[in-house]
Amino acid sequence: MATDVIVPTLGESITEATLGQWLKQPGEAVKADEPIASLETDKVAVEVNAPAAGVLAEHVASEGDTVNVGAVIARIREGAAAETSATPAVENRTAVGKAEAAQPPEPAAAPAGQAAPAGYGNHGEAEQGGAAGQTLSPSVRRAVLEHGVDPSRIKGTGKDGRLTKDDVLEAAKSQPVAKAAAVAPGGAPSVSAPVATGARKEERIRMSRLRQTVAKRLKEAQNTAAMLTTFNDVDMSEVIAARAKYKDLFEKKHGVRLGFMGFFVKAACQALRDIPSVNASIEGDEIVYRDYADISVAVSAPNGLVVPVIRDAQDMSVATIEKTIGDFGKRAKDGTLKMDEMKGGTFTISNGGVFGSLMSTPIINPPQSAVLGLHRIEERPVVRDGQVVVRPMMYLALSYDHRLIDGREAVTFLVALKNAIEDPTRLLIDL
Question: What's the confidence (pLDDT) of residue 194?
């Protein structure tokens, strides 16, 4: 008896998805509710679980196919795992042994530093099997190829121990760098001639549905909104001092680390209340003003940045904000964010500073009218009370829709935010 595996309901107004990756191959045993495939929607990746235990009989759809909600993508043969006897396994091992005996001798090992990592064919292309026999997603395969790491030696941090792109990048940072020249017995370095690497290769990977949607929406924002970016800088001395003083006590009491985002979200909520147009949006020929702040926070996920929403952030404490952001970050890496958590949002904060960005002009996320970009903190000389001193400074960038927000309002918003960060007491006494 076969059981159909169908595309589950993906959320309101979402009728189709892209089959991003098969996690199980035909012939493999599956357990009930075990993930067997990953679907990519416009917002997040969704896993499809096995409706019954048995053996995966066939794939009805291929990776990259667009599938509708309710469509059959695979079939599971129930109870087939119990029918497998030991005899075929013995025969298979015997056949493998004969085949190995018939194989010609292996070629000599490649010079040091040129050996292909495990899991790769002769042409440098990633095989389907990764660490512990797992299937690698296209983005992970590409990262493995680019950095020349061995996926079988990397511990995956994704769901069920699967490798993520971040895992590969971390492994690439830690692997030793091959020496450019060996030292000859006489003490002088012996320089070898460059070795030809053969034909240059290209790899074409279909854009994920998430990336296609991001590209479409960002281009739509440029075509629709009259975007402008205003900059300011902020002295982070007081926030850094407060964090250093209270971080241990904060973590002990609230069970979460005290970061900078909690301060910025809280300060943004107060500034949005004072400058309501930054929190508003244009709908047709009307302007929609809001007395609440649903803050979209960009967090890193294996397939790119996602933007879950902190609902009613204006009513939250710094501790609650930090807990919410930490939860979003963890579940974004695991791929377990829900559709509803990605919808809405009245204002976005994107922290490019964690990746080392000094300055940027972020693009607004329609139908929102503004986005705040945070950047890296670096010590710079500034003038205080007539003296040149060194302070930890950060550039702030506010991109906004000039159809709704005037320059005066944008500058006023940034100044209010700057004042709150440079004097965090303002956040406590609501100034």
Answer: 57
User: Which sign, positive or negative, has the C-alpha torsion 139, 141, 147, 151?
Assistant: positive
Judge whether 375 counts as a catalytic residue: no
Tell me the domains of the chain and their CATH numbers.
Answer: 2-82 (2.40.50.100), 121-175 (no CATH), 209-429 (3.30.559.10)
- Fill in the amino acid letter for 178: A
Would residue 167 show up in a list of annotated catalytic residues for this protein? no
Write out pLDDT tens, residues 13-32.
Answer: 577 788 878 888 888 888 88
What does the radius of gyration of the chain's CA atoms come to, in whole angstroms?
A: 27
Q: Which of 401, 397, 395 lies closest to 382 in space, CA to CA?
A: 395
Tell me the β-bridge partners of 324: none
Could you say which of 274, 402, 423, 430 is catalytic? 402
Reduced to 3 states, what is the DSSP secondary structure of residue 344? coil
Q: Catalytic one among 160, 315, 406, 423?
A: 406
Whether the CB-CB separation of 230 and 407 falls below 8 Å is answered with yes
How far apart (Å, rounded) are the C-alpha atoms in residues 176 and 215?
36
Q: What angle do CA 211, 212, 214 make, to 5 degrees?
A: 60
Q: 17, 10 in Cβ contact below 8 A?
A: yes
pLDDT tens digits along 271-324: 999 999 999 999 988 999 999 999 999 887 776 678 899 999 999 999 999 999
Instruction: Report how far residue 94's alpha carbon sits from residue 121's, in angstroms, rounded to the nearest whole number.
Output: 25
- For the chain, count helices (H), then strands (E): 9, 21
| Model pTM score | 0.60
